[in-house]
Design goal:
single chain; three-stranded antiparallel sheet
Length: about 650
């Protein structure tokens, strides 16, 4: 194996492991996967093209070799992860894990995960098989590419690869920047948006593998072609820099293009430019183990994330880096190597031994699915969402500007609840003690006039929808003379990327700032007052960054919990919510603010579980029962 290829593999796996450690060493180390894609495309295409050129290519032998290379370490990792899962996963997590396991065994993980969570969502860190999506995508490429190259005439192979590359990259970028759009062909599988599917799908990520394939074709037909050593050195530096510097909030995007180009420059030519330095030799050696290191590292971090309920101590994150590399080496030494060229190589020597072994492993999800976990106290059927009056009230306006009937409670309308999901979760408590409540809510879109956030995958097209929604909300409120009070609520964190974030206004994009956020909330309050109505702002519930429901699930089941209790410590809450609390304190001179911490906390901590009831459904949203318990006795009309 060429030294530079092993170097690339070593760099790729190290930056991925450091990224997943959450130590903020390489904040964009996920780009290591893009390096892997290009290298994989290069190697696999080289094998296929040489076989086709020599007229010695065999589909059966090709797939048997792939099985011998990939399956032993994968199956070992799945067995190890499933065994740990019996002790570390709650019943809800377990059912999700079974779906992930089936996806891993069928190489369809990249289709399973979008139905559960986005890769960059915080909750994704608790998916033990999240990382298998990339292996599934590579395997899909391995099934597709040999047939494609076999069918297409030899003289058109390069043009065919280039055509597919162009189609794939165009498809990818068109979806990445298609904010708030659900693919018409995939909406029945998941509500994930095009930008999320673009990350996972084979057609939208194949261009990175195809870049490696194009390099392989060029090296086969122009073996003397090379790239200057100085440019290869710059390419290595570029890979490391890009893994630490943010260019765009989307992925894959322009930074992926640079990663692919830099990796391609290194692959073109030979490895004679590399010096014999100890650091380089060490990274190359880790490159030998990279497949197993990649496989084993993520379940370790996922289980630590779950056991510590999203707040892994720094010392644990640091320790898991060498542990991942050590276990990866052990799996390489005692699993990969014996099955490839040692005493067990006969097990994957032909197609029927591969099929037989795979069939046995397929029994794994059947056997472990029979495991049962003890039911949680009065929570077995508790929903994981709280949409308020109805799920359709997440952006509940009809095309004609009227509000869906499900978003109005019984009685003459006198209270409007306006905001995002942190307004939605208030409704069960408010309607318990009030009639005539109307719900005007849209997820992520806070009740701010003329300001909308640019937040994660919620880009400018979505922000325009948010601006329009809030204008509709204000028009609806102004057109109903029976209204007396308007409740506003949001966590406001989606507006608080003050360093490099943006907000959309009617005049275009502007830099995010605390002053603009304060002004936006103040403007909404002033508009309500001008209508002769009483504005009431309800604060977000106390939170400190961990998933409270997951913590309670672990506490009341046999799953391992390494966190010291599930209540929110007062000091942690105040530190975590400092900017939001400061904002609401300044608004108190303009509107009544109801502080939920005064209803839920004492001087030391805030309750999360009362009389058999979970108060939260995640890290910050109230459950329906929790909302009723906390807000059910309040009379908003006397404020």
């Amino acid at each position: 194996m060429r030294r530079d290829i092993q170097l690339l593999r070593g760099i790729a796996v190290l930056v991925v492991v450091l990224y997943h450690s959450k130590l903020n060493v390489l904040a964009h180390g996920y780009l290591g996967v893009d390096i892997f894609f290009v290298v994989s495309g290069f190697l696999i295409t080289s094998i296929i093209l040489k076989g086709l050129q020599n007229e010695s290519f065999s589909f059966i032998q090709f797939y048997v070799r792939r099985a011998k290379r990939l399956l032993p370490a994968l199956y070992c990792t799945l067995l190890f992860t499933s065994f740990l899962g019996l002790f570390l996963l709650t019943s809800q997590r377990w059912s999700e894990y079974i779906a992930q396991l089936v996806g891993a065994l069928t190489f369809t993980e990249n289709m399973v995960l979008p139905t559960q969570i986005g890769y960059f969502d915080n909750a994704a860190d608790g998916k033990p098989l999240l990382h298998i999506w990339s292996l599934s995508l590579e395997e899909q490429y391995y099934f597709f590419l040999p047939l494609f190259l076999f069918i297409i005439p030899k003289r058109y192979r390069f043009h065919g690869l280039l055509f597919l590359f162009t189609i794939s990259i165009a498809w990818c970028f068109s979806w990445v920047y298609a904010s708030n759009q659900v693919p018409s062909l995939l909406w029945r599988i998941s509500e994930a948006q095009k930008a999320e599917w673009a990350f996972y799908l084979f057609p939208t990520r194949a261009w990175e593998l195809l870049a490696g394939s194009l390099c392989a074709w060029l090296m086969l037909h122009q073996p003397s072609f090379t790239i200057p050593a100085w440019l290869k050195t710059i390419s290595v530096i570029t890979l490391l820099v890009l893994c630490g510097v943010n260019i765009t909030p989307q992925h894959p995007s322009i930074e992926a293009v640079f990663i692919v180009l830099a990796t391609s420059f290194i692959l073109l030519g030979d490895d004679k430019w590399l010096v014999n330095h100890k650091v380089i030799k060490t990274v190359e050696r880790i490159g030998d183990w990279s497949y197993s290191v990649y496989l084993v590292h993520w379940p370790l971090y996922a289980f630590a994330f779950l056991a510590y309920v999203e707040q892994i101590p720094v010392w644990v994150s640091v320790l898991l880096v060498p542990v991942s590399i050590g276990l990866g080496y052990a799996q390489f030494r005692w699993v990969e190597t014996p099955f490839r060229k040692g005493q067990f190589q006969h097990i994957f020597a032909n197609w029927y031994t591969v099929a037989g072994t795979t069939a046995l492993v397929f029994l794994l999800p059947v056997l472990i699915a029979t495991q049962r976990f003890e039911p949680l106290p009065d929570q077995a059927a508790m929903p994981t969402t709280n949409y308020g009056l109805s799920e359709v009230c997440d952006n509940g306006f009809n095309k004609d500007g009227t509000l869906k009937v499900q978003c109005l409670s019984d009685g003459k309308i006198n209270i409007a609840v306006w905001g995002d999901s942190y307004a939605m979760h208030l409704l069960p408590g408010i309607v318990k003690n009030h009639s005539g409540v109307v719900q005007i809510t849209k997820s992520v879109c806070g009740p701010l006039i003329d300001i909308a956030p640019i937040y994660k995958n919620y880009l400018e097209p979505w922000a325009n929808e948010c601006l329009e929604f809030n204008n509709q909300a204000l028009n609806y409120i102004s057109s109903h003379s029976t209204l007396t009070h308007v409740v506003l609520s949001s966590p406001f964190h989606q507006y608080m990327n003050f360093e490099n974030g943006q907000m959309l206004t009617p005049n275009g994009l502007v830099q995010s700032s605390y002053e603009r956020l304060l002004e936006g909330l103040a403007n909404s309050i002033e508009k309500i007052k001008q209508l002769g109505l009483t504005p009431i702002v309800i604060s977000p519930p106390p939170k400190s960054g961990f998933n409270i429901k997951d913590c309670l699930d672990r506490k009341y089941s046999s799953a391992l919990l390494l966190r010291n209790g599930c209540n929110v410590e007062m000091q942690e809450y105040q530190a975590h919510q400092q900017t939001v609390n400061q904002l609401l304190s300044q608004i108190e001179s303009k509107a009544k603010v109801i502080w939920l911490d005064k209803l839920m906390c004492n001087q030391q901590y805030c309750e999360t579980y009362v009389e058999g009831t979970y108060l939260y459904i995640d890290s910050g949203h109230l459950s329906a029962k929790g909302s009723q318990k906390i807000l059910g006795q309040l009379d908003l009309t006397i404020l």
